[in-house]
Hints:
Elements: E1 2-6, H1 11-22, E2 26-31, H2 38-48, E3 53-56, H3 62-71, E4 76-79, H4 86-91, H5 93-113, E5 118-124, H6 147-164, E6 171-177, E7 179-181, H7 200-209, E8 215-218, E9 230-231, E10 233-235, H8 236-252, E11 257-263, E12 269-270, H9 271-282, E13 288-291, E14 300-301, H10 306-312, H11 320-333
Helix pairs in contact: 1-2, 1-8, 3-5, 5-6, 7-11, 9-11
Amino acid sequence: MNVLVTGGAGYIGSHTCVALLQAGFCLTVIDNLSNSHREALHRVEQITGKSIDFVQADICDEQALDAIFAQHKFSAVVHFAGLKAVAESVAQPLAYYQVNVGGTNTLLKVMAKHRVFQLVFSSSATVYGDPQSVPVTESSPCAPANPYGHSKLMVEQILADLVAAQQQPWKIISLRYFNPVGAHESGLIGEDPLGVPNNLMPLLNQVAIGVRRQLEVFGDDYPTIDGTGVRDYIHVVDLAEGHVAALQYLMKLEYAEYSAVNLGTGTGISVLQMIASYQRATGQVIPYVVVPRRPGDVAAYFADPSMAAEKLVWRAHRSVEAMCADAWRWQAQNRDGYRSCSPD
């Protein structure tokens, strides 16, 4: 089965390429490399011993997409390509709507032209906004708090409407994931953020490797176990395997369907708990200082993953210690990420 992976050179995309190749799929990857590196795919090939057909292209370029679909007979698409930084989306909302919504519309148009109707979409738990209660279920109200979350929810609505129109046999699943962390156990691929990281794990790595003097903990007065924010951290390899499970689910469907499914562990971990786990797993000392809360941060946010277990027969099973150890292995082996590699 030949699958197109958009944004496949990125953090989650590259790990999903490993899982897809190991599951027996043949892959073509398109990526504009604006926030990723070609080296990631070379390393995917190294890990799996299998080759990937790579095309540098943008999902907003309809002509380029049409040419790619004309050259290949795809059975399905796994769609990661898009912009993903919350703060940047607040500053540049038009870019997020143009790329995330407009680019997906272009992709869907080309898919329909070439009669490719199976799609796994990379959505996000940001569609829920500030949850009224936890754990968060798929039926929880969606009220995004920023343009990034709005763009993901807009795409979800487009996908649901496409299936509801019943004009073509679309089979689509949106995966709402929580906080991906960690890296492949080989240390060959991992998270390589540009600029200041937005997430906790790469900040922990940067403190451990000496790039940062200390970690800033934003607030210790939340109504949580230790006053710090609680999140659902999921190992990126578990997340990648969730995409394989979603694709296999679509392949077995005998009718059109749209569904949105949470991918998370169902367990909330506080910032201080994650720091402690990181220190135990890696042997690194992480100095930190508590600073005021960031605007918009919520106290606790974690998934109810029961629908994924029932529908996709998938559960996250890698421990927090494994997340930390694998993240550190990647950082220790790749101090400057992929940036030390020469571009093709």
